[in-house]
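Reopening this one. Same input as before:
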Amino acid sequence: MRYAAKKGYEYALIANPDIEFPQTDYLVRMVERMRQDKQIVVCGSDIVTPDGVHQNPMRREGHWSSSWNWVTVPFKKKKTDTYDFIDNYRESHFCSKVSGCCLIVRMDFMQSISFFDENVFLYCEEAILAKQVERVGKKTYYLADIQAVHRHIKSEKGDPIKRYKNWEKARIYFIKRYSGFSVLGRCMAILSIQTYIALLIFHYKSAHR
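Same output, byte for byte:
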């Protein structure tokens, strides 16, 4: 990002290496939408897996109590076309957050926030970015009529316990620094994350004895 800023680029595309772009005008249409509204500093498209699961846009961070939503997941009917934390993917609209696996950012905005927060790795970057956009009164936009394909392969992600702990660390950092929760809310949200990760690790170890 610093290199792009030094070179004077106006926009930057952030994309995972397992992202594919079936539409040849993908970038053009994303940039065109951002140029129509200078308040849009982050833009994301529809992102879908090969088996048809949509991964964008993401819901806004809720009240601290939403950190405990994982408790009810086993009792809910599982969606087949998306995840519970995904918002309306069928229509283009201003949204709170887009997936960090593929998005376009406006470079002058990124410079104004000193680029990405480097205290997290792999997880919670999009949650932090969403709060940074919100804090300065700018906008994030989701385009439903263009699409990227995320050929995500879970088996290639490495040690799951290491990933769980990395996510836990990043999530707690986000809660403490960016969430805006009260002191009690932060404590309750952190307790939820720690409990959730402890259960995941216990389940994984039990299954692999």
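So the earlier flakiness isn't reproducible anymore. For the record, The beta strands are 11-15, 19-20, 40-48, 93-95, 102-106, 139-150.
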